[in-house]
């Protein structure tokens, strides 16, 4: 999916436009609840073309003289990440020094830049945008974030400028693995450790888009691809300078993955940011496992592993299904345990349960613990069937979906898990009226 970035100095209205682009006036391709908290990345569609949008305004740095610095970082991120850049200015404020600064940076990038002038709230103001011609990005497009005018024209131009990306496509049996975790947890070290392992065959077919972002390899007859490894190797750049940015980068990798390795620093323990990223893997319906790295430097006795595992369970209540692997990327201690677990959870993620087996489990569950009544009405379950994999998704047909309570759905999920395991993968249950 090609990427569009919105760049401009603070208060030109980037977030309003961003929300319009990914908002419900357009077809939302996906809407993931967890991301709304501080959403700077979303998916949009226009004229049948799908793309992602980054609001670089989400990474503004606070503080008096930080404005220029923020703008510069944003512009660099946009250049690094985006296929098309929407450069926003403000018709009410007119052309400013900072706009010219941004223009300078964008100009050198060679990326397609569309110049959008926001706050053109009525046609009389149209002449206000002429001065922006001097920025050298061709015709300015007048828009109004608050009224919504001009957005369609802007989108037409965005879509025209999008490159034809050949998304990396991998065969069905290739397991796509994303490594996520905060800076210095050991992602690049783990990538190198895996690829340097004995009997790992690293293929030299690099990814096809931009700067060869994925690394395919084979081990014990199973093919894998490590997603976005280039981003990890390219050290010390704008990447990871801000927390939100590394979260966004992780989200993009998660979207493309089958299995997400959530790296945790064994030396330092679990922090809030770990939860945020893991939550996204859960919401995106990906298989996951925890990798506790730097296990070599942890002082251990025979209970340390169990204690650490309990801590993970306490912190990630929504991901109790995810196995935990302890290892050291540095010494390669226990490294050989990793890929078999990755393969196992990938299999669970695409497991398909036959309808009759599923229904045996559901009827047993109902027999042991019948659905509660609600205002004298009782939920009746007709049957259940699995409608999708990755993640396994079940539909339960009932007399009246309103009567299905969250706790009963949880109960069914637990019974289904107890029967079929589904280790390492979320499962989804939808309730539908039997027609
Ligand atoms: P990234 O930012 O997540 O890619 O982390 P790096 O792979 O760059 O690792 C950050 C630092 O932690 C480096 O100094 C590594 O040598 C060190 N490191 C990585 N894995 C381990 C490990 O298993 N044990 C120890 N002791 N250090 C590690």
What does this structure look like?
The chain is an alpha/beta fold and 435 residues long. Mean pLDDT is 84; it is low at 24-38 and 206-211. The two termini are 37 Å apart. A seven-stranded mixed β-sheet has the order 8-9-10-7-11-12-13, sandwiched between helices. The protein has a six-stranded mixed β-sheet with strand order 2-3-1-4-5-6, sandwiched between helices. Helix content is 33%, strand content 21%. α7 packs parallel to α8 (272-283) and α11 crosses α12. The chain contains twelve helices and 18 strands. β14 (373-374) and β15 (377-378) form a beta hairpin. The chain has helices at residues 14-22, 66-81, 97-109, 151-161, 187-196, 229-233, 243-256, 272-283, 304-315, 338-349, 355-368, 406-420; strands spanning 3-7, 41-46, 49-55, 84-90, 113-118, 141-142, 175-180, 201-202, 215-219, 222-226, 259-265, 287-293, 324-326, 373-374, 377-378, 381-388, 393-398, 428-433. The chain folds into three domains: 3-161, P-loop containing nucleotide triphosphate hydrolases (Rossmann fold), CATH 3.40.50.300; 175-346, P-loop containing nucleotide triphosphate hydrolases (Rossmann fold, 3-Layer(aba) Sandwich), CATH 3.40.50; 355-433, GMP Synthetase, Chain A, domain 3 (2-Layer Sandwich). Residues 181, 183-189, 232, 293-294, 296-297, 328-330 line the site of guanosine-5'-diphosphate. GTP 2 binds at residues 181-188, 228-232, 293-296. Belongs to the TRAFAC class TrmE-Era-EngA-EngB-Septin-like GTPase superfamily. EngA (Der) GTPase family. GTP 1 binds at residues 8-15, 55-59, 118-121. One of its GO terms (biological process) is ribosome biogenesis. Residues 2-166, 175-350 form the EngA-type G domain.
